[in-house]
Specification:
The protein is of the alpha/beta class and 254 residues long. The protein is built from eight helices and six strands, in the order E-H-E-H-E-H-E-H-E-H-E-H-H-H. A six-stranded parallel sheet has the order 3-2-1-4-5-6, with helices on both faces. The longest helix has 29 residues. The structure holds nicotinamide-adenine-dinucleotide (NAD). The site of nicotinamide-adenine-dinucleotide has 28 residues, from helix 1 and helix 6.
């Protein structure tokens, strides 16, 4: 509690799903937050104001589209202007599409690479100068078990998530002497809106029984606890790390 008091965080793709759990966990720990993402304006406003009333911090929404580099830079600028700094950046926004390689729509490839990989580059590029100036920063990139292993029909997603691991390692080296850490979490199967939308309860149970060594999906809060720790001053010696949260799933080529 209060470990992040005085810090300001940006979480991409945080108007719903796991990203919202990160934003709320930061607020619970005392940080102000910029939430970002798509959705119905009234729903976004309810989540934003809910963060402020529940945790007595400030929260603003950036509508930045993660396919648009200029809007991503504006999102970081919004955090710096509103709160005075962006100390913590979580690159979480992500989408999925499944098709055999020869039928994979080119626009889907471009969108997945843009949202799942390039948006992290643009956000980091915009946030690092301020972090360097203040000699403190925490960047956490959310990849996937698909950043470690492959599945058929997920060419763009697997390529983008492997790229997120590479980007993490490079920026971790470049910023290491500036009080900035850059780490990557590849989650396994975590319960979220898109999982509820895309997989039936029966299929999720089959996955839990057959694919996930601990026998269940993970909860967003189980990721959020690690994200908050990585963002805390105590985590200053963890840099360039890839820390799976997947119930042992990565041992499988799924
Ligand atoms: P989700 O679909 O529930 O949420 C995705 C978020 O990204 C939403 O807030 C959405 O508004 C936002 N978003 C999508 N396109 C955007 C754009 N163009 N601009 C700005 N925001 C945009 O997904 P989730 O399950 O919460 O996943 C969050 C992250 O975790 C993703 O990067 C995903 O790849 C990763 N992940 C999820 C799982 C899982 O099992 N749920 C597993 C591994 C990795």
């Amino acid at each position: 509690m209060g470990t992040l008091k005085g810090k300001n965080a940006v979480v991409t793709g945080s108007t719903s799903g796991i990203g919202l759990a990160y934003a709320r966990a930061f607020a619970r720990a005392g940080a102000n937050v910029v939430i970002n993402g798509m959705g119905v304006p009234a729903d976004i406003e309810r989540e934003r104001s809910g963060i402020e009333t529940d945790f007595k911090v400030r929260a603003v929404h950036s509508p930045a589209d993660m396919t648009k580099p200029a809007e991503i830079a504006e999102m970081i600028a919004l955090g710096e202007k509103t709160f005075g700094s962006v100390d913590i950046l979580v690159n979480n926004a992500g989408i999925q599409f499944v098709a055999p390689i020869e039928e994979f729509p080119i626009e889907k490839w471009d969108a997945i690479i843009a949202i799942n990989l390039s948006s992290a580059f643009h956000a980091i590029r915009a946030a690092v100068p301020g972090m360097k100036k203040r000699k403190w920063g925490r960047i956490i990139n959310i990849a996937s078990a698909h950043g470690l292993v492959a599945s058929q029909y997920k060419a763009a997603y697997v390529a983008a998530k492997h790229g997120v691991l590479g980007l993490t390692k490079v920026v971790a080296l470049e910023t290491a002497t500036h009080g900035i850490t850059v780490n990557c979490i590849p989650p396994g199967r975590i319960m979220s809106e898109q999982i509820r939308r895309n997989y039936t309860p029966q299929y999720r149970q089959w996955q839990a029984d057959n694919e996930i060594p601990v026998g269940r999906y993970g909860e967003p809060e189980e990721l959020a606890d690690l994200v908050v720790f990585l963002a805390s001053p105590r985590a200053g010696y963890i840099n360039g790390a890839v820390i799976p949260v997947d119930g042992g799933l990565r041992r499988y080529q799924f």
